[in-house]
Amino acid sequence: MREEKQPSVYILASKLYGSLYIGVTSNLVGRIWQHRNGATLGHASKYKIYRLVHFEMFGEMELAIRREKQLKNWHRPWKINLINEHNPHWADLAVGLGLPPLGKKKPPDGP
């Protein structure tokens, strides 16, 4: 079965008003899983930025990329206002997408 692509822009945060990371993907759940499981190296993994605090879905990747570039050029207070407008408690929105809450990893198999 082929996975359906859904272009998305997302903002991750390390904590309430913490470090932010903005990205674009065609598979939001898969990309968040990659961030949380160390499959991606870089700014987000270095600063443990894993909490999904905002996302926007698009019909075309070109529009998502344009929005990502726009958000990356915004001043930090504008980004914070955007998050606060839609998610004032900075809840982890990934839980609503079917991912486990942060800090609730399954124990490894074995003795």
UniProtKB/TrEMBL annotation:
GIY-YIG domain span: 5-81
Gene3D superfamilies, per database record: GIY-YIG endonuclease
Organism of derivation: Sphingorhabdus arenilitoris
A Pfam family of this chain: GIY-YIG
CDD domains assigned to the protein according to its UniProt record, in alphabetical order: GIY-YIG_unchar_3
SMART domains associated with the record: GIYc
Protein family (similarity comment): Belongs to the UPF0213 family.
Protein name per the record: GIY-YIG nuclease family protein
InterPro entries in UniProt: GIY-YIG_endonuc, GIY-YIG_endonuc_sf, UPF0213_domain
